[in-house]
Design goal:
Blueprint: H1 14-31, H2 35-41, H3 48-52, H4 75-88, H5 90-109, H6 112-122, E1 130-133, E2 149-152, E3 158-168, E4 175-183, E5 189-197, E6 204-209, E7 219-229, H7 241-273, E8 275-276, E9 279-280, H8 285-313, H9 319-343, H10 355-362
Parallel strand pairs: 1-4, 2-4
Antiparallel strand pairs: 2-3, 3-7, 4-5, 6-7, 8-9
Helix pairs in contact: 1-4, 4-5, 4-7, 5-6, 7-8, 7-9, 8-9, 9-10
């Protein structure tokens, strides 16, 4: 009987393995050691974003004709990269990945002119900030029924109005991809569409926001008041909102996997080194079982995320698995963050240890849709 490839193999390809080595080393050397200081200062390290240019992430999905590597859309590689960077720090990872989200989306659903504009603007030797703006202020945000609107005009242009929240970089971005409800000249809804624009346009204003987590990431509230956009600012008619949301859910779940791995690694060392009543606290079953549950839940989440990414890469319908992975990421991420704080006892409540930082960042998982895209 001839040998055949295993039916279920999670072994990374040689290229993925090499990429993971680079990402993990960068996360360990340039992100994790600076995370606490960045959180305290509520700003990214001065030289951090420029160092990320060397990773070449923005160049990967862009065709060679536009100055990129030409690797195309690779949801699995993107997911692994997101996981590895998040293990260094979620806030810094989001800052690195925000421009890549714009690039991935425009390369998939943008016109030739939009793709060329993105490549010319973001594929530089200097870090060029860019971001997607999907979320809106309020108790909930339904991407299929946004409050922001883009009204088509008789000359083909669009007038964009609405408010946005959780917008990385804000006025400092070179490009924004803003999502709104498109309305035809006849007043008919054309569904949710993305519009590529520069934040310097008249009618765009931004206010810096502060949150309990993701403190180093520059997040803004955006106000778009009758912003005039050219006819070619909108993504192509074949834009698939559900597929876009699925890719974003996979990416957000990957952020959870990386951050939760940091929590697990830290508490394993802590409970083995922390001595109480003459022995490490890991010798107590109540402690050991919590750590075992954390590891089990994390591994289950990781497999769900990988399965969703694999479906996306094969061109299959990944919406169900992406939704389940994201839902599980929010649930498991919160539990692992809470258990990490709990295992440190009173120390978990102090800023001496990073578990409280990870806990605060993990609280954001439910509201990050659209910021990252696998």
């Amino acid at each position: 009987m001839s040998e055949s490839a295993p039916m279920f193999d999670l072994t990374p390809t040689e290229e993925e393995f090499m990429t993971r080595e680079v990402m993990r080393r960068f996360a360990a050397e340039e992100m994790a050691p600076k995370a606490r200081a960045a959180d305290e200062a509520a700003s990214l390290p001065d030289d951090f974003l420029q160092k990320t240019v060397e990773l070449g992430l923005n160049f990967m999905p862009v065709p060679e004709a536009l100055g990129g590597v030409g690797a195309g859309h690779q949801p699995i590689s993107n997911t692994l990269t997101i996981e590895d960077l998040a293990q260094g720090d979620m806030s810094m990872a989001l800052a690195v990945l925000a421009p890549l989200a714009v690039i991935n989306t425009v390369m998939k659903w943008g016109s030739s002119a939009q793709q060329a504009r993105v490549a010319d603007t973001l594929l530089l030797d200097q870090f060029a900030p860019a971001a997607i703006s999907l979320l809106e202020p309020g108790l909930s945000c339904d991407p299929a029924n946004l409050s922001a609107t883009a009204q088509q005009q008789p000359d083909g242009s669009w007038h964009l109005s609405g408010k946005k929240s959780l917008l990385p970089f804000g006025p400092d971005a070179q490009l924004l991809l803003v999502f709104a409800k498109a309305v035809s000249m006849a007043g008919e809804s054309l569904g949710t569409r993305g519009f590529l624009l520069a934040p310097s346009l008249a009618g765009c204003s931004f206010t810096r926001e502060q949150y309990m987590g993701l403190r180093p990431l520059p997040l803004y509230a955006g106000n778009f008041s009758d912003v005039i956009l050219p006819a070619d600012a909108v993504l192509r008619d074949d834009f698939d909102l559900e597929q876009f949301l699925s890719l974003s859910r996979i990416a957000t779940a990957a952020l959870a996997v990386g951050t939760c791995q940091s929590v697990l690694d830290y508490v394993k060392d802590y409970v083995n080194e922390r001595v109480a009543f003459g022995e490490p606290i890991s010798h107590r079953q109540s402690v050991a079982f919590i750590v075992a549950d954390m590891a089990t839940e994390l591994e289950g989440l990781r497999l769900m995320v990988y399965r969703a990414a694999s479906q996306a890469e094969q061109g299959l319908d990944c919406s169900r698995m992406a939704y389940l992975a994201h839902r599980q990421a929010v649930k498991v991420g919160m539990k692992i963050g809470t258990d990490g704080v709990q295992l440190l006892g009173g120390h978990g409540f102090t800023r001496e240890h990073p578990v409280e930082l990870w806990y605060r960042n993990l609280r954001a998982l439910a509201i990050l849709t659209g910021l990252v895209v696998a």
